[in-house]
Amino acid sequence: MIFILCFIWLSQGFTKPFIGHHDWNGVFYSNIAQNYLKFGLLGTKLGQMTQPGSFYTHYPPLLTLILAGFFKVFGVNDVVARLVPLIFYSAAIVLLVAICRSRKVLILLFVPMLRYFAKMPSQEALIVFFSCLSVYAHLNQKSKLFYFSVIGNGLSGWAGYFLYPFLLLKDRFKLIKTGLILIGIFSLHLFHLYWLTGSFLGGGILDAFLLRLGLFPRLGRIEPELSGQFSWLNYLFKQIRILTVYYTATLISLSGFNFILIIRKIIQKIKLSQLESIVLVFLAWGLSYPLIFPNLVFVHEYFNVFLAPFFGLSFVNLVDRFKLKSILIILIFLAIFWERNSFYQALAKTKAFLPGYLYGLLIKNNTLPGQTYQLRQSAEFIESQQLFINFYSQRQIEYIKTDDSQN
After folding, report:
1. Which of 78, 327, 333, 376 is most buried, by the most CB atoms less than 10 A from its CB?
2. How far apart are CA 26 and CA 155, in angstroms?
3. What is the pLDDT of residues 78-98, one digit of tens each?
């Protein structure tokens, strides 16, 4: 029942095409998933083929394989693609309810971070789910389920790796076993890259890693935005703004107060409850990715989604600690919902990639499958809209770059 509630609530607006804020992810991964169907698993060597002979190697392929499965069953379109993250985020919230044994964690349904990004196909949906599953399985001593979640996290992306040192701090044997599994999965990924590209670091995975750390020596020439704008001071102020608008000042304040109470217990050497310990685990995990890969989070604010479990469980712990009355809890829910509802509505209406969507439909409706279409546009337009045109046209397109003055 809780899963259905979460799914219905978060699915608001999920029929919107990929034209809005950060919807580049949706068309990019959907295109890869289509190529699995077009060229076959053997033809792609299980690699995330962006076009024949070119592979996206920065993440393992679990997300795009799942998308391909959904496309195979339900057809290729944006609505089907959005179903995948919706399912995983809804299931993650169900797991958080099970972890804290309280439905008050549903407060997360009202923050813009989940209201908007729960419909964005990306690895973060899988990572949040498998991380919550790991915590749930660990707390309930479900060994097989725990190691299943570890494998799932390893095949989804790298952020999930950072959870286990915090979660298994007091269980050295389990931490070593988990570490070996993740090292094995990462090693398989590197061997897969060698099979795909002829290099263990093929597809620019090392460059991407250094770029995210801010260590890539050509950073200024490749990403001048990052080089020119990033500093730890700028990053700190931007993070404060981002967290405030995506999680609301109300929820952040309550979570901060709860954190102070937990720290006070630690100073006074009072034993923490299980929930308080897990709150700290999720806080450490949620902060690890922004601290290790600041350049990435500086541009892509949705990586702060890893803080969602911390904020949700902090709220539950605070409410239970002070035994707040139901009417006050309802008022807090409403305050969090209304505080940034206008911001969420503005996000939902973004249309930066509408031209690519419209061009794609126009080409699809006026050409036959198999035909090649020539599109003349400026280099800037092609660079920003090409993926969207490709996805929605379902045609082979020859792009001809022109000067802006010719358009």
Report:
1. 78
2. 19
3. 999 999 999 999 999 999 999
